[in-house]
Write a structure and sequence with these properties.
The protein has about 300 residues and is of the alpha/beta class. It folds into two domains: about 140 residues, Rossmann fold, CATH 3.40.50.2000; about 140 residues, Glycogen Phosphorylase B (Rossmann fold), CATH 3.40.50. The protein has eleven helices and twelve strands.
């Protein structure tokens, strides 16, 4: 197919933002929107009952040129659609479960089936692509996630040092994100220099537990939890803070990191499988091991260095 041809693309993701889960992996929607801006026609099918929406599409005489699967869970449906309409299928994998070692045997079998059928497999970072090839024997190329630079963009920062230096975390509130370590590290440096704040944006199963940690450490005046924010509001917050922190245990990429970088923020990231492949240590951020003492040091360094 010519690279200049405008395609009719069917995207079938395993996760997608919805009214029930507006926080659901927005980067797949961002990619779909980018394809539309490039002139392609894009249809996204995401529902627990895939067959209903597909039936509606077929009734409308929908004829895509290619199927793009996001994560292996939607693989069987994509293969069926590819075979029925004799169109090619490509796959992008995002799931951290491969790195976390929680993929069950039946899931690995399903993933291998999809990847070996797919004409092109994409991993979102070099480390993740290598891991997928090692685990499944399928060839993976690297195509990083993208950032909307119309939304996440440089702005004039408020350099008024009379206000507190503010760190930011954005993401799902889950154990794998290592937010407890971030809170503990922040607590240590805050007691040494009280002119700092931390904003934790997001929702998740650890919300109540994290708020309790803040309460126990008497940090309620300096640590805030605004909850889930739409991308536009996240962009505004990024333009009003001083640095971004992602202390994850596992990441396949870390799109929120490039959103922060696009907004002009220095970043602190852990070696977690994704961010360390594009953050240049000491240049546009700090890359550390998953260690609280290292994080404490990095929080001080990112503030003092300023980048």
């Amino acid at each position: 197919m010519s690279s200049s041809k405008k395609l009719n693309i069917l995207i079938i993701p395993s996760w997608y933002p919805s009214e029930m889960d507006p926080n659901g992996v927005p980067y797949i929607r961002a990619q779909a929107q980018a394809l539309v801006r490039a002139g392609h026609k894009v249809t996204v099918v995401f529902t627990q009952s895939y067959s209903l929406n597909l039936k509606k599409l077929m009734e409308l005489d929908f004829n895509p040129d290619i199927v793009h699967i996001h994560t292996y869970l939607a693989g069987n449906l994509g293969i069926w659609f590819s075979q029925k309409y004799n169109i090619p299928l490509i796959t992008t994998e995002h799931y951290t479960g491969f790195a976390r070692g929680i993929i069950k045997s039946w899931e690995l079998k399903l993933a291998k089936k999809l990847y070996h059928y797919s004409i092109y497999n994409i991993g979102v970072s070099t480390l993740f692509a290598s891991l997928l090839t090692e685990m499944t024997g399928a060839d993976f190329k690297v195509l990083p996630n993208m950032v909307n630079t119309d939304l996440f963009t440089l702005s004039v920062k408020n350099n008024n040092r009379s206000r507190a230096y503010t760190y930011l975390y954005v993401g799902y509130l889950h154990k794998k994100k290592n937010i407890t370590m971030l809170l503990n590290a922040f607590t240590e440096i805050h007691y040494k220099n009280k002119s700092s704040k931390l904003i934790i944006v997001g929702e998740g199963i650890m919300f109540a537990e994290l708020k309790e940690i803040v309460k126990i450490n008497n940090l309620e005046n300096v640590v805030s939890f605004p909850g889930f924010l739409e991308a536009k509001k996240v962009a505004l917050v990024m333009n009003d803070v001083d640095s971004f922190i992602l202390p994850s245990q596992f990441e396949t990429f870390g799109i929120v990191v490039i959103e922060a970088m696009a907004s002009g923020l220095p970043v602190v990231v852990t070696k977690s499988g994704g961010p360390e492949t594009f953050v240049q240590n000491g240049i546009n951020g700090i890359v550390i091991n998953q260690d609280q003492k290292e994080l404490e040091k990095a929080l001080v360094e990112v503030r003092e260095k300023g980048f």
